[in-house]
Design goal:
159 residues, alpha+beta, five-stranded mixed sheet, 3 helices, 18% helix
């Protein structure tokens, strides 16, 4: 089933015909952190996005966008870093009141890395445990990736 999200801009080139080459920080705006009642019913994801913007994210170095659901509802609040020819990272369990500055620091590290790779011990402490995924870029040929075929697996030997 194809869903139409009319409020979302069309994907593809920018209005001027260029394609975004900067890394992108995506923040789920719909995440609920179970503290909406004490925060004017504003969802945790929206509060996280606001806190990150207020913490001084570098808009010149990366694009920032809100996403209307990143589908990690059991691990809110969620954000991702991605970009052309870069590793993609997905982080959850973020607290809008405590982790905004950590996200800003993580984004700075991500922008500075040529391929977006960030070793676990380089990331701010909350971003070490809260990683939900790290996906190598398409075409990546480093040690994090190997080609597999059916003959790559010997299913007769125990692990």
């Amino acid at each position: 089933m194809v869903r139409d999200f009319p409020e979302a801009p069309a994907s593809g080139p920018n209005v001027d015909g260029t394609v975004e080459r900067r890394p992108t920080l995506s923040i789920c705006l719909r995440c609920r952190d179970q503290r909406e009642d004490v925060n004017n019913h504003i969802r945790g994801g929206a509060r996280l996005a606001q806190a990150i913007l207020e913490a001084g994210i570098d808009h010149a170095a990366l694009s920032v966008r809100g996403v209307h659901c990143i589908s990690q509802c059991k691990r809110p609040c969620v954000m991702a870093l991605s970009g052309p020819d870069r590793f993609t990272y997905l982080f959850g369990d973020l607290d809008p009141t405590r982790h905004a500055q950590d996200v800003v620091e993580l984004a700075r590290l991500y922008v500075q890395s040529p391929d977006g790779f960030m070793a676990r011990n380089e990331r701010p402490p909350p971003m070490r445990a809260g990683v939900l995924g790290r996906v190598p870029p398409l075409g990546f040929s480093g040690t994090a990736v190997e080609t597999i075929t059916l003959s790559s697996f010997n299913l007769k030997e125990p692990c």
